[in-house]
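Narrative of activities, Objective 1.

The group set out to show that a structural description can be obtained from nothing but a protein's sequence at a throughput compatible with the screening campaign. Below is one input-output pair from the validation batch, recorded exactly as produced.
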Amino acid sequence: MHLLTETWLKDAVLPSILVIVFIETGLLFPILPGDSLLFTGGLLAALENPPVSIWVLVPATIVVAFAGDQCAYWIGRTIGPALFQKEDSRFFKKRYVTQTHAFFEKHGPKTVVLARFVPIVRTFMPVLAGASVMNYRRFVTFDIVGALLWGGGVTVLGYFLGNIAFIRDHIEAIFLLIVFVSILPGITAVAKKLLNNRAPDEALTASSETTR
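Output recorded for this entry:
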């Protein structure tokens, strides 16, 4: 009985990982532990008697991660036209969708890849890409890159570095730091633009007060 239970649990490892990855990336369920799950999967594959082979886990994870994003993209693509037809309200403006489209046209490739490593963001990024009608060929191209780096990279990282306690215990924080450093130039540019736009307004206000 014990042997049967152990065998069943081992057989369930791969399907469980793949199902959770697909739900998180494709079915708008952002609270699942994607990064730590893949890292743990790689760690399990490195055991002496692994429940799953790393040679099976890595390609399977990459394929499912890619498939999940494709599903989410087409969910967004389906609801996108309805958003364009929706009347403006207190919390929704049509320009939000237009601005999102412009963002993905300009920054889409980098966003598609980096979003993979940010919890919650990786769930909604492909939906927004679809809703904003990001060019599908570009989306697919960089989504493949993202699936390879995230689905394959994190799993392999767990396989080789899973026994290092610091990395194992801080894997998500490490990824967030890497993403932050990657987008820091963009944040700096936006901050400078906001400050430059604010300066003329402050000067105009000061001039008006002086005139009074």
